[in-house]
Write a structure and sequence with these properties.
20% of the residues lie in helices and 15% in strands. With 66 residues, it is of the alpha+beta class.
């Protein structure tokens, strides 16, 4: 319910075109203190990487393991 409320509120106030929603779990994923939270990432049609999901950068050659 809170996630839906924040999407509505931020979408209306800031003209958001889409969303990425993500969770981090574990040190390697960027969570260094165990807890629960959600990333609500506003996306806009005119941004450089519009249409690419939050995993897009993970798939880039420069991020591949040795």
């Amino acid at each position: 319910r809170l996630l839906a409320e924040m999407k509505d509120r931020l979408g209306t106030e800031h003209g958001v075109a889409g969303w990425n929603i993500g969770w981090n779990g574990g040190d390697v994923a960027g969570q260094n203190i165990e807890h629960v939270h959600c990333h609500l990432i506003a996306r806009y049609a005119d941004e450089k990487h519009a249409g690419r999901g939050i995993r897009w950068w993970i798939k880039q050659p420069e991020n591949r393991r040795g």
